[in-house]
């Protein structure tokens, strides 16, 4: 969606945070030394991560782990035999906070990726308190697939198809990271982005939030694409409808598009076409509002936009942005998008 494309454009600027401006440097740094640009990025992020971890609160530890992981990746250090700081803080967050869904999802994701699966409390949280969440159930299904447990996989897929809501992890992560990093100053080279003193932090939030998001597209396409098995078709239709009615712009796009090949009723098919059309309208209009003008500024207040994401999800925030700029939420009759979404 355009909002994610906007985020990607901002993310491109983050390369400057971890690169060396040879033309501006009078001498190359000695081996093991950081450039001023790297210090300007690493120091405030590391300081905030340690402050958050010192609180001992589960959500703060989770954010500290993500910030530490971003530093580890940007420093491009070789894999160490000792546990990384990001892993230590994530371990502690999972140990004391697996009753919180966002931490439980992180625990299951780590199990899938690294095989660290002693996470009974996290699994119990997702199976019981988050039984209606599609993302949580897809995670548990993928974990069962990874373990090659056919019976558990079949049961997990049944739970997936019975889910009734889609948690927008990306929006939740943005809101959490925004609250946890306010006041943190990350400088950006003026030549890369013109903005206020908070611009560097805002830029990085979108990159950090992506680490919390589970990519569901491959799973959905694998199970519910054109080669869908007959016994999965009804369940796939149910989960795609949940996706199409979610608050994530990207997920709405996928769900509403795929639903058009599942419904047989003409009225229902038109409803999903309209849903896709509305998304295209919102995406195009908000992209224009977020595009910087000649003065380097856009019509969107990013601090306000982030607050809206926390309140209403990604799609809801985009709609609030239209309302704030006196733009209709529905396209006029006969309007066609400049591209398909």
Structure explained in plain terms:
The protein has 341 residues and is mainly alpha-helical. Helices cover 63% and strands 0% of the residues. The protein is built from 15 helices and no strands.
Descriptive labels:
341 residues; disordered N terminus; 0% strand; 15 helices
- Structural class category: mainly alpha
The quaternary state of the protein chains shown equals single chain
- Number of helical runs? 15
Largest sheet: none
How many β-strand stretches? 0
- Distance from N terminus to C terminus (CA atoms, Å) equals 7 Å
Shape: flat
Task: Give the low-pLDDT segments.
Answer: 1-28, 191-195
* Averaged pLDDT: 84
User: What would you report as the Rg, rounded to the nearest angstrom?
Assistant: 22 Å
Strand content: under 5%
Element string (H = helix, E = strand) = HHHHHHHHHHHHHHH
Helix content: 55-70%
Structure, briefly:
The chain has 341 residues and is mainly α. It has helices spanning 2-12, 36-54, 58-75, 85-97, 101-114, 120-128, 134-146, 150-162, 169-181, 199-210, 217-224, 233-244, 249-259, 266-290, 302-324.
């Amino acid at each position: 969606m355009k909002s994610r494309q906007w985020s990607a454009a901002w993310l491109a600027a983050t390369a400057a945070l971890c690169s060396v401006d040879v033309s501006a440097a009078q001498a190359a740094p000695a081996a093991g030394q950081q450039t001023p640009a790297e210090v300007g990025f690493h120091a405030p992020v590391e300081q905030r991560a340690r402050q958050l971890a010192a609180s001992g609160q589960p959500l703060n530890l989770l954010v500290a782990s993500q910030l530490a992981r971003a530093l580890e990746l940007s420093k491009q250090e070789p894999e160490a035999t000792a546990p990384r700081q990001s892993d230590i803080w994530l371990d502690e967050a999972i140990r004391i906070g697996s009753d919180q869904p966002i931490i439980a999802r992180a625990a299951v994701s780590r199990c899938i990726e690294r095989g660290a699966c002693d996470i009974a409390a996290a699994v119990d949280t997702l199976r019981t308190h988050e039984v209606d969440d599609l993302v949580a159930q897809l995670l548990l299904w993928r974990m069962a697939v990874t373990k090659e447990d056919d019976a558990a996989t079949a049961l997990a897929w049944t739970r997936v198809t019975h889910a009734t809501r889609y948690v927008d992890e990306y929006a939740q992560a943005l809101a959490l990271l925004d609250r946890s990093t306010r006041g943190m100053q990350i400088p950006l080279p003026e030549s890369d982005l013109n903005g206020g003193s908070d611009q560097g932090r805002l830029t990085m939030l979108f990159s950090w939030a992506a680490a919390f998001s589970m990519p569901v597209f491959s799973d959905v396409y694998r199970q519910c694409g054109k080669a869908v098995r007959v016994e999965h078709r009804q369940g796939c239709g149910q989960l795609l409808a949940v996706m199409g009615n979610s608050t994530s712009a990207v997920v709405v796009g996928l769900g509403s598009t795929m639903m058009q090949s599942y419904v047989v009723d003409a009225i229902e098919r038109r409803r999903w076409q309209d849903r896709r059309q509305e998304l295209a309208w919102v995406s195009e209009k908000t992209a224009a509002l977020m595009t910087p003008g000649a003065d380097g500024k856009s019509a969107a207040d990013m601090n306000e936009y982030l607050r809206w994401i926390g309140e209403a999800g990604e799609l809801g925030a985009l709609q609030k942005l239209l309302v704030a700029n006196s733009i209709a939420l529905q396209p006029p009759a006969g309007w066609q998008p400049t591209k398909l979404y």
